[in-house]
């Protein structure tokens, strides 16, 4: 009986010691989770300039804005723009992030850009600035046409002028064929 009382007393002291240690430890903090403030399916946005000319039409299969954020996460993006020469640009990406604070849309996850029917551009990410009418990418990019492929480490598209430029480590390969005159 002596051993059982002293064993119980030792057990109680061990439990009290464990509780005392737990109380002295700093609590672990869990990151606060934001609530969804807006969730949209089949979103379509049309952007106009100050004179009322249509600049672009954007479609997203799914869009989510979290509470307190000035940005919107999007999936299944398709953007259409027309340059000043009347040529239509189409941009496709699986994901995107629209920032209201600086009026930009960043397409990610493998972006495919077509200009008219003759040129295709590919890159991992592309940021469109609605104010300057420029799109830029700092990831590897390719311009693909019927004549060949040109790659570079940076891409810039001017939607007003209807041009695309590759910069940094630019390399080209052209296929044999007849030249058009």
Automatic annotation (TrEMBL):
It comes from Candidatus Paraluminiphilus aquimaris. PANTHER family: LIPOPOLYSACCHARIDE EXPORT SYSTEM PROTEIN LPTC. This is LPS export ABC transporter periplasmic protein LptC. The lineage of its organism: Bacteria, Pseudomonadati, Pseudomonadota, Gammaproteobacteria, Cellvibrionales. The gene is lptC. The keyword Ion transport does not apply. Pfam families: LptC. The keyword Cell membrane applies. Keywords: Cell inner membrane, Cell membrane, Membrane, Transmembrane, Transmembrane helix. InterPro entries: LipoPS_assembly_LptC-rel, LPS_export_LptC, LptC.
